[in-house]
Amino acid sequence: MKVGVVGTGMVGSAAANALVLSGAASEVVLVDKDEKRAMAEAEDILHATPFSHIVTVRAGSYDQLEGSDVVIIAAGVSQKPGETRLELLDRNTAVFADVIPQSLQAAPDAILLIATNPVDVMTMVATRLSGLSATRVIGSGTILDTARFRALLGHHLGVSPKSVHGYVLGEHGDSEVLCWSLADVGAVTVEEYGRQIGRPLDQAAKARIDERTRRAAYTIIEGKGATWYGIAGGLVRICRAIGRNEQSVLTVSMQGDEIEGVGPVALSLPRVIGRAGITGTIWPTLTREENAALTRSAEVIVEAAGG
């Protein structure tokens, strides 16, 4: 599978490196307005191939994206300390107006995978600018938030996060919805499993996990300026689902949903992903409180998008 990466800042370069280390792509092309930066990143990543997987890695102009199965859009300005993702909107919309047309001119059949924040609104922007079916414009959405939720639950319960099933839905941002009612381990709820092993998930424990999931980006940005490793892993997971036609269920963002009359809007729900992009959406059964929170999350995104 050929993957293009447009924008070789920390997220784009980390994603390219993760694609190589995981073997999820056979060819990776890096594109950036700073050609020297793209070339340096490609060269550095290429030097890791003898230790991992033999992948063709190079930098190039937009025309080098020809034949890409997926183009990851990681171009944009970074989130500043104290700045919300939604405050990035105006600055990154201008960037997309430049990079989306050039990417699709070279690779008209590619699936666009949006990583730039605020990712849900930028997914809507990319859908509008590209003219593609919404099923072929995938926002990374809450795939990382879901991973954070599962990792924290796994740590609390003493089990692998891969054995925890739980979802974060809605906005990739402050209004995201941690769906406690759907979280389980080994076919029992996380609350019940916590009681069984003497590690109860009381309100204090839930509040700590909620805070560390919802505010993770702010903590990381304060410490090192930006987040990149976690989202790189999420982008590779989506690429693998596409390249292998897995029909895997992942929490990603796509425009077109209407939540309790709010929309159309791009937000994260469990989606089925394969070679054609998003092939289905699963509408989970939520509690009344969770459903109200999801509706509010949709309102936040629509408001930010100017709707």
Question: Which key phrases capture this entry?
Answer:
307 residues, 21% strand, 14 strands, alpha/beta, 3-stranded antiparallel β-sheet, 6-stranded parallel β-sheet, single chain
Extended strand count: 14
The termini sit apart by 37 Å
Based on helices, strands and strand pairing, what is the structural class? alpha/beta
Strand content: 15-25%
**Going across the major beta sheet, what is the strand order?**
3-2-1-4-5-6
Query: Which residues sit in consecutive blocks of at least 5 with pLDDT less than 50?
Result: none
Question: Helices, strands, pairings?
Answer:
Layout: E1 2-6, H1 10-22, E2 27-31, H2 35-46, E3 56-59, E4 70-73, H3 89-106, E5 111-114, H4 119-130, E6 137-139, H5 143-157, E7 164-165, E8 168-169, E9 177-178, E10 184-185, E11 188-189, H6 190-197, H7 203-214, H8 216-224, H9 229-243, E12 248-259, E13 262-274, E14 277-281, H10 288-304
Parallel strand pairs: 1-2, 1-4, 2-3, 4-5, 5-6
Antiparallel strand pairs: 7-10, 8-9, 10-11, 12-13, 13-14
Helix pairs in contact: 1-2, 1-9, 3-4, 5-7
